[in-house]
Amino acid sequence: MSTQDYSYETHQPVRIGAGSFATVYAWRGGPLAFKVAAAPGNCAVIHQEFEMLRMLYAQSSTASLFRLPKPYAFYDPGTSTVILNDGHLQSNRTPSPGHRPTIANPLRGITTDGAAYAMDRIHVVPFEVGSVIKERFYPSFATPQAPPPSLCRLYFGEWPESLRVSRFFSAKHFALNPTQYADLCGAFSELESAKDVAKGMGDMLARIHWRAGFDARDVEFGMGGDGIQEITYYMRAFSKDIEDIQQLVKAHFQNDPYFPCARDSDPLFPSFKEGYLNACGGFVEGGRAFIAAALLEQLLRDTRDQLT
Fold this sequence. Notes:
By secondary structure, this protein is α+β, with helices and mostly antiparallel strands. Helices cover 34% and strands 17% of the residues. It has two domains: 14-120, Phosphorylase Kinase, domain 1 (2-Layer Sandwich), CATH 3.30.200; 127-302, no CATH class.
């Protein structure tokens, strides 16, 4: 038998995303993603993000609709050491029959000179679902060659004017509003209802606020795939430590419009509120204070809009 390698699959990490301070890679279609700092000065930021992610992962629940990418290891180029997620901060999840064993050093071969951490990869939405999204919801100015979306952001709040009139859209992170999501549910009965999605958002937000102690600034809620053919709902969070309720409210309204509007008239807000308060645990009074403050802030904003 010939020893020639007939595979066209690359032997190098492939870039699947990039931001201002880091780039995300995947390797040979594997189940992990690797976030690598873009510059040496970003090492502390990457390390802090890794520590926050594993703390949040420890507070997540198998009953939660949204899942966090599990963090596996952090690489510090300054000391050439790997910090493994050794289980002390992991949640008490019961391993499934297909549960992956611990990986000794998942970052080997990814980087030697940049800080990085390994985590579960969020896969693209199944092709069939993505094709329907492209057919029904892509703007008229999108070219026929535009690919189906990779991931979908679930914008269940009130879209600002800049989003409603934008002449730009992203197939990498396509934004779905509640009406579009409901339409998609009509095509795919396997999807969770919009109310259950809103409830899941509330559940995860409360866990970030009251169990992990972060303000959920720049949190992301989205829809992807499991790498085979099923839909998954994912969450990513980049936060600051909590100081007071007003900080939570400020972060809540500064985020992209993922959350239902804090109005009793919003059909999805009761589900969001239910999920939030149910997940507060022993901090339910703080949770009620946040909900009340969010309702008041929304009322003040609505009043200002009516006067202008």
